[in-house]
């Protein structure tokens, strides 16, 4: 048997074994091979037909997304202004689903794994591209919300202050107790704000 025939025979055997796996297993095999720098087409696992549709490169897909986003910006604004349903009500209705999926992601390590895929340098690069104006514009755009929140917080803060001011302040033990009480009261402010 010639080298070419031997190689074809090995590829055929490999392909037959591969095709016996279920689609999920085949996907994992292909992904693992590619992560090791092995192209499945080159070892005969998937067809090498030039007319077979190929997924575009990551760079091409990303460029396409960025270009389409800039064109769709006005559609995004319109969608935010008139959603098909109230987003707050929808989020509240989906609370149990959110908690279940988050817990599953944490148990399976997906939450942690997702965080590990990014970096501080990546975040800094975005900030450098956007500049500080995005931050100041974002805060300015939320001025009404900020005023509402501080309006709700002010009487709670005042209550914390009044409570602390009424406590003894003569000894180090008194001052330590005031500090610990202030911390506990600020935790209570958070609970009150959350409605718990």
Structural commentary:
By secondary structure, the chain is mainly alpha-helical. Among the domains are: 1-46, no CATH class; 144-194. The chain is 75% helix and 0% strand. It contains 11 helices and no strands. The protein has helices at residues 3-19, 23-35, 58-71, 73-81, 87-93, 95-107, 110-116, 120-130, 132-141, 143-165, 172-194. It starts with a helix and ends with a helix. The mean pLDDT is 86.
Task: Give a concise summary.
The protein has helices at about 5-20, 25-35, 60-70, 75-80, 85-95, 95-105, 110-115, 120-130, 130-140, 145-165, 170-195. With about 200 residues, the chain is mainly alpha-helical. The model has no long low-confidence stretch (mean pLDDT about 85).
Blueprint of the fold:
Blueprint: H1 3-19, H2 23-35, H3 58-71, H4 73-81, H5 87-93, H6 95-107, H7 110-116, H8 120-130, H9 132-141, H10 143-165, H11 172-194
Helix pairs in contact: 10-11
Compute the separation of the termini in Å: 78 Å
Which stretches of 5+ consecutive residues score pLDDT under 50? none
Instruction: Please state the average pLDDT score.
Output: 86
Report the order of strands and helices: HHHHHHHHHHH
Please tell me what the overall shape is: elongated
């Amino acid at each position: 048997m010639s080298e070419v025939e031997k190689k074809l025979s090995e590829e055929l055997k490999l392909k037959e074994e591969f095709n016996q796996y279920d689609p999920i297993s085949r996907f994992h095999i292909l992904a693992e091979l590619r992560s090791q720098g092995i192209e499945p087409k080159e070892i005969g696992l998937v067809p090498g037909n030039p007319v077979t549709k190929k997924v575009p490169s990551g760079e091409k897909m990303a460029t396409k997304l960025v270009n389409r986003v800039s064109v769709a910006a006005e559609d995004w604004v319109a969608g935010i202004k008139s959603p098909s349903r109230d987003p707050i009500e929808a989020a509240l209705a989906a609370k149990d689903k959110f908690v279940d999926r988050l817990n599953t992601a944490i148990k399976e390590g997906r939450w942690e794994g997702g965080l590990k895929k990014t970096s501080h340098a990546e975040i800094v690069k975005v900030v450098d591209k956007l500049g500080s104006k995005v931050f100041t514009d974002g805060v300015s755009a939320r001025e009404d919300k900020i005023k509402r929140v501080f309006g709700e917080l002010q009487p709670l803060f005042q209550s914390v202050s009044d409570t602390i001011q009424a406590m003894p302040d003569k000894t180090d033990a008194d001052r330590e107790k005031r500090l610990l009480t202030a911390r506990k009261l600020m935790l209570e402010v958070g609970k009150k704000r959350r409605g718990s």
